[in-house]
Amino acid sequence: MAKRPKPGKCIYCLEYSDDLTWDHVLPVSWYPESTPKNIEKWKVPACLSCNRRLGKIEEDLLVRLGLCLDPNSIPALGIPHKTRRSVNPVYGRNEKDRKARTRKREKILDEITWSKTFPKDGILPNFRPKIGLRYDDYPLVYIPDSLLREYNEKIVRGIIYVVEEKKLDLEYIIELIITEDNDDSVARLFQKPTHIYDRGYGFVIKQISHKDNCSWLFEFNIWDRFVFYASVYPQ
Ligand SMILES: [Zn+2]
């Protein structure tokens, strides 16, 4: 792959740019250490501004989810440890980095709320405490809806570009679907997917293509824990 993409349109904002960059469809920092070395990490042409903006979203979401992962999980190997390090000033490379980690730590701690009872809804599927574990207080990590939506849209645009060689126009509807814990109605649709993309332990993506070949359903399973769906169709 060339060092830099040829000038052209960014696949996210569709603006023309003379200096496009390569953006990882599945964020590089989200791959667990258990990922086989021969897995190709999909890259797509993106403008610098989208690359940076999406990078911040991925980083923010990773800290929130990473804190909730099991340190002994093979599909998430190294992610919980890396997340904790990223908010620990002890690991800072210099004074500026130590300060940035402290700020990140304060921000996330500030947003964690403690509850005596476990909330009935609003919990991501598979993110309830392990059965049999009891807490006096449950720490709740807040995941803003907007982060999930932007992350979903970014991955969908990237995958469609890689596997379908299409740049989705901005009018496309990219709907994020998050189911309740005990609801397998959407998961059942994926018993016979059109494609499965297994990117090592960290990411397993299933795709169902509609006959018109311009609408799709996706199932994303990240770290065998974080599961969501996307429905993609023209307006
Ligand atoms: Zn862009």
Descriptive account of the structure:
With 235 residues, this protein is an alpha+beta fold. 29% of the residues lie in helices and 21% in strands. It has five helices and eleven strands. It has helices at residues 48-66, 79-86, 95-111, 145-164, 185-189; strands at 8-9, 16-17, 21-24, 43-46, 113-115, 138-140, 173-177, 195-198, 203-209, 216-222, 226-233. Strand 8 (195-198) and strand 9 (203-209) form a beta hairpin. Helix 1 packs across helix 4 (145-164). The mean pLDDT is 94. It binds zinc ion. Zinc ion is lined by residues 10, 12-13, 15, 46-47, 49-50.
What is shown here, in short?
The chain has 235 residues and is an alpha+beta fold. It has helices at 48-66, 79-86, 95-111, 145-164, 185-189, and strands at residues 8-9, 16-17, 21-24, 43-46, 113-115, 138-140, 173-177, 195-198, 203-209, 216-222, 226-233. It has a five-stranded antiparallel beta sheet with strand order 7-11-10-9-8, with helices on one face. The chain has a two-stranded antiparallel sheet with strand order 1-2. It has a two-stranded antiparallel sheet with strand order 3-4.
List the helices and strands and how they pair.
Blueprint: E1 8-9, E2 16-17, E3 21-24, E4 43-46, H1 48-66, H2 79-86, H3 95-111, E5 113-115, E6 138-140, H4 145-164, E7 173-177, H5 185-189, E8 195-198, E9 203-209, E10 216-222, E11 226-233
Antiparallel strand pairs: 1-2, 3-4, 5-6, 7-11, 8-9, 9-10, 10-11
The protein binds zinc ion (ZN).
Residues 10, 12-13, 15, 46-47, 49-50 line the site of zinc ion.
